[in-house]
Specification:
The complex is a heterodimer of chains A (324) and B (441). By secondary structure, chain A is an alpha/beta fold. In chain A, 41% of the residues lie in helices and 14% in strands. Classes of the chains: A alpha/beta (324), B alpha/beta (441).
């Protein structure tokens, strides 16, 4: 398996990926081969010198449309697009047209009239990017929609793991924390199960969504049990803004049972790595010292891989559109 | 004198358990003859006699739709006309419209405004609580005198137990039912403050988890019904549960009925013909309240229809504008159109051999009339000619673009059956070209 994978990877390094769709809306439903190719291409970008000439997309117009606050994702997309030579316009609509009562579709079609090639959308409502894709002619990347998916985060997480450990298939990966409100969790569950990893989800029962095991994961309320022998421990931010105040007694109680500390981590594989999509709450989801332990924490690598992964996706969407 | 003769028509009349091929003659607003043998000469003297060849067609009492929301996209007259075209001859409208139906004079006004000999009769539910706020009893006695047929908070639950107890007690005194949208709105997250991000949006389960939408647990329905049943027992009220959607609710109502309490319920076509998997593309036409449930719940609704636990099928019509539906799922409005598909989707139960046609017609006619204490529609000699003529087997596909109200949750559904004519008080309220072509004299 790994051998064949390597061959594919060599073959694809030189060329952009072609996908079956010119949108990236969700990981759910993506083919394993497509994911593999995107990761291989991203790996190629990650290995390049940051001043290498990758400006394949001059004249390509990207609108970075954020209906919800974001720093790292917005900047990461912008950098990725710029490295490819595209023109990027950042639009923050958190306090703008929406508050004036303009409907989402009117906003979208106004933006579409400016004839962008790609719209990168972050929106607080699950499914909003699908609505854009239904009505607009340009490519759409879902940069996080409500509690639904955050596909580029899952791809960058996968690339981070692959570059550290070498493969995904068969790895024991524990996703811990606020699964119910997490789009990162959903995208990672779909991606990692598709790639053949053993995925476990660890959360207090109040933050474990209904019937989660039907997505092909094992569910645990006991963190020590859930991360036993894990190769990767992936932590999630507590999405306080999406809670009603009935989910959790307090931050210190959460940390006691679900925050990653040395004791709990000792249950995992001795080489286990730690990940967090950020922004992290130190002392709530993770002990501060562990977050900064560069031997085990891949948190900074995740951010770095974000740019490479997004380059491979933007390039692929352009390529896929040209071919259809 | 004008006579209309419906020759060789299958007459279904649930009130007398009648289902035979006969000839029906109407004169003015009255049915004057139902017979196997037709003495045409008796009527032929009169040149104004119209004879319809009804071979292969069916006649039944007109539909009584007991749950209709008049939303912002419609006015009453438009809804009446659309209802007539859909085989409905009477409908009961909910008080949660603008302005709210919460005082005797507005009940009177709506009744007068809607009176039209040639359009479906409009019955009115009064707001059970003042301003539909769930806190204080409204003037239900006075509204009852003005013709309100029952009391409800419309699409919101009557949440406060004391208010519900008093309402039931008072409504029992004036012999009127309390109709409840059964939902524990704390549990479903609907009472959460302004933010939409923690309000229940769809049925809770695997599908809501996949979509990242907030789930409403199925038990939010039965919790309210269980409380209400105890209050009905305490007060002796007639308690009616609207749009039942879950297995547990059907089970609890079944047991309550067995114990002899005066409890009735209805459901609506989406709950016995669709399930939550329809939401997988975030299609907001399927954003309903109660939400579409699991397949197991859907099957339980069918069982409830078969064994009579469920008394009525109502449209639960709640048309919405395209603008409020072309939104992300969380921001989209709740509800779907129903009057235009009520008959067709109910008839589908007959084609699927789930119930027989007499029973299907009962669900749409005499059962709601009995529950609401209204004269039971019956097609007999000397009775009023309120009826529909339909083709049970005409195949066609429901298409949104052919409907006047939206959104339909049944767009693209292939069905059999078509309403050909609707008569109200002996007058043609609707007749399509197919039926006009059936005139033989």
């Amino acid at each position: 398996m790994n051998k064949q994978f390597k061959n594919n990877s060599e073959f694809n390094k030189s060329s952009p990926v072609k996908l079956s769709s010119h949108h990236l809306l969700a990981i759910e439903g993506m083919q394993k081969t497509e994911i593999q190719k995107l990761l291989d291409r991203a790996d190629y970008f990650a290995n390049l010198d940051k001043h290498a000439d990758t400006k394949y997309l001059s004249g390509y117009v990207v609108l970075n449309v954020f209906f919800e606050n974001s720093t790292r994702t917005r900047v990461s997309f912008e950098l990725a697009a710029r490295r490819l030579g595209a023109e990027v316009i950042n639009i923050s609509l958190i306090n703008s047209s929406i508050k004036k009562g303009e409907s989402l579709l009117d906003t979208a079609s106004t933006l579409n009239a400016m004839k962008p090639d790609l719209l990168i959308v972050r929106h607080p409502h699950s499914g909003a990017p699908l609505l854009f894709a239904e009505y607009l002619s340009c490519s759409i990347i879902n940069a996080g929609d409500g509690r639904h998916e955050h596909p580029t985060q899952a791809l960058l997480d996968a690339l981070t793991i692959k570059r550290r450990i070498g493969y995904l298939e068969g790895l024991k990966i524990s996703i811990c924390g606020d699964i119910a409100n997490s789009r990162v969790a959903r995208s990672n569950i779909h991606l990692l199960t598709t790639m053949g990893a053993e995925v476990r989800c660890v959360a207090p029962s109040t933050l474990m969504p209904s019937s989660l095991e039907k997505l092909g994961v094992k569910c645990f309320n006991d963190m020590k049990e859930g991360i036993k022998d894990a190769d990767v421990v992936m932590l999630l931010r507590l999405q306080i803004e999406r809670m009603s105040g009935t989910e959790n007694p307090s931050e210190r109680e959460y940390f006691n049972f679900f925050g990653l500390d040395e004791t709990k981590l000792s249950m995992a594989n001795s080489n286990a790595v730690i990940m967090h999509p950020g922004p992290m709450n130190r002392g709530v989801e993770i002990a501060s010292a562990l977050a900064d332990d560069t031997n085990r924490s891949l948190i900074k690598t995740q951010v770095e891989m974000g740019v490479a992964v997004r380059m491979s996706i933007i390039e692929a969407l352009n390529h896929s559109k040209n071919k259809t | 004198m004008t006579h209309s003769i419906f020759k060789s028509i299958k007459l279904i009349n649930p009130a007398t358990n009648f289902n035979q091929k006969v000839n029906v003659v109407i004169q003015n607003e009255t049915i004057i003859s139902i017979s196997k043998d037709l003495n045409l000469e008796k009527f032929n003297k009169d040149n104004q006699t119209i004879i319809y060849d009804c071979e292969g067609l069916t006649m039944s009492p007109g539909i009584f739709d007991m749950r209709v929301n008049i939303g912002k996209t419609e006015n009453l007259k438009f809804t009446q006309i659309t209802a007539a075209e859909s085989g409905i001859t009477s409908m009961a409208i909910l008080p949660n419209q603008t302005p709210k139906l919460n005082n005797p004079s507005i009940i009177d006004h709506i009744k007068r405004q809607s009176e039209d000999i040639n359009l479906p009769k409009v019955m009115v539910y009064g707001a059970a609580t003042k301003d539909l706020n769930g806190l204080e009893m409204s003037e239900i006695g006075l509204m009852s005198e003005m013709g309100a047929i029952g009391f409800t908070n419309g699409n919101k639950s009557i949440k406060n137990s004391l208010v519900m107890r008093r309402l039931m007690s008072y409504a029992a005194m004036i012999n009127k039912p309390i109709i409840q949208h059964a939902e524990d709105e704390d549990l479903s997250g609907l009472n959460q403050a302004s933010t939409t991000s923690i309000r229940g949006e769809m049925n809770e389960g695997e599908t809501s988890t996949r979509l990242g939408l907030i789930g409403i647990p199925a038990c939010a329905e039965v919790i309210m019904i269980e409380r209400d049943i105890r209050l009905a027992k305490l007060t002796g009220a007639h308690y009616h549960v609207a749009h039942v959607s879950t297995r547990d609710a059907v089970n609890v109502i079944r047991e309550a009925k067995k114990s002899g309490l005066n409890i009735t319920c209805d459901t609506a076509p989406p709950y016995f013909s669709l399930n939550e998997s329809k939401l997988l593309t975030y299609n907001t036409a399927f954003k309903l309240s109660p939400p579409l449930r699991s397949e197991d719940d859907r099957l339980a609704i069918i069982e409830g229809i078969q064994d009579g636990t469920i008394d009525v099928i109502a449209s639960d019509h709640r048309a919405r504008s395209k603008d409020t539906k072309a939104q992300p799922f969380s921001a989209a409005s709740v509800g779907a159109s129903g009057i235009e598909t009520l008959f067709l989707i109910t008839l589908n139960l007959v084609h699927k051999k789930i119930i027989d046609i007499n029973k299907a017609i009962s669900f749409l006619t005499i059962n709601p009339a009995k529950i609401l204490g209204i004269d039971c529609p019956s097609l007999e000699e000397e009775k009023v000619a309120d009826f529909i003529v339909f083709d049970e087997n005409e195949p066609h596909t429901i298409k949104q673009k052919n409907l006047k109200t939206s959104p339909t949750p049944f767009d693209g559904k292939k069905i059999h059956g078509k309403i050909l004519a609707t008569y109200i008080n002996g007058q043609v309220a609707f007749m399509n070209q197919i039926f006009k072509n059936k005139i033989i004299k």
